[in-house]
Amino acid sequence: MRRMQSLVIAAFFFSAMLCACAALKAGPTDITPSAYQPCTRAATFEQPTGRQANAVKNVILLIGDGMGLNHIWLSRVTAAGADGRLNMECMPVSGLVTTYSASNLKTDSAAAATALATGRKTVNGMISVLPDGTRLKTLLEKAEQRRMATGLVVTKAVTDATPAAFSAHNATRDDQNAIAEDILANGIDIIMGGGRKYWLPSVKGGGRTDGRDLTLEATRQGYRYIIGRQELEDLQTLPVLGLWAENSLDEDGDGPTLAAMTAKAVQLLGREPGGFFLLVEGSQIDTRAHRHDAAAVIRRVLGFDAAVKEALTFAAKDGHTLVIVTADHETGGLVVLDGLQRPEISWATFDHSSAPVALFAYGPGAGDFTGMYDNTEVALRIARLLGFTPFPEDLLPSAP
Questions:
Q1: Rounded-to-integer distance, Cα 92 and Cα 88, Å
Q2: Using an 8 Å Cβ cutoff, are 153 and 278 in contact?
Q3: Which residues are catalytically annotated?
Q4: Which residues contact residue 22 at a Cβ distance below 8 angstroms, ignoring those fewer than 6 apart?
Q5: Most buried in the list 48, 188, 196, 224, measured by CB within 10 Å?
Q6: Each residue of 99-120: pLDDT tens digit?
């Protein structure tokens, strides 16, 4: 009986692998967005030298949600060929990062982003809070304390797990109404993405039942609230709250691309004399990998990589900007098997895996990110380069 069960299970997974391979092979042969340009070997970004080599003024942290090594490899083979490279692969420093949480070998985005934001482990589902209720100060909050400018740019809700872990504190990632309140209270200079329903009351088509209109509260605090692509192009002042969708942005539709938002963010933040900390998330790589939609995964990775190019272009001109590209975890257990023109793939799970993820770095201090280390070390090394002390740091308890 056990042998029969094993054979049935093996047959099921073999069939799933064949379906996944066939699905990608049957897809369109050209799925590269027209705006995407891969890196060329002549365009490899060289490390700054001399006095610029250790002077970190700005940090741009780009996180591909769910982006494993094979997501990058599949996108590279499809868009640039096996001997080509994505823009992130032209960064001169690389490393490998472990992603386990305090409760599981397989992390979720909340715990992983908490590690990247605070340098501490927590359990799955928690947003920059330890299981005992201790709230953890984040890199973004330390930057605010230093009077640096700050920004969040994402393609899902700005209240989703990854941006929330840098800008809020909550025992559950699902309390996005409260997370929106935390984000607004933090005084972040650029807030761009989706999730409008968590900012608007139900009477205005939102999802808030407390009657609060956080977009109105933001304008009263000096924010410019924008919802159109042209408004983004015309934007010249800070602070700004840009919410282009009720929930997630669809970069194939009317919302701005991640690259466009990133380009505008570095343009505006780069004017700030005290430096800046910017978080950019390619949020929907994870969503598409959960669905085993390989073609969409590739489009999302390439869209994210276009944003990486904007960050690198700014950093190369600036000379004092550290750019880090990594992921919070791997999604799908993706494996690329064979096929130079039409890669054959398989998926191991519809969930996350515990596989380490890649990290790429460019700019002053980038050399600190070579090797293999834990995701908490990413935050600790950024904090050290920016002179954030103490770090990690607990927040004082809220007033009763």
A1: 9
A2: yes
A3: 109
A4: none
A5: 188
A6: 999 999 999 999 999 999 999 9
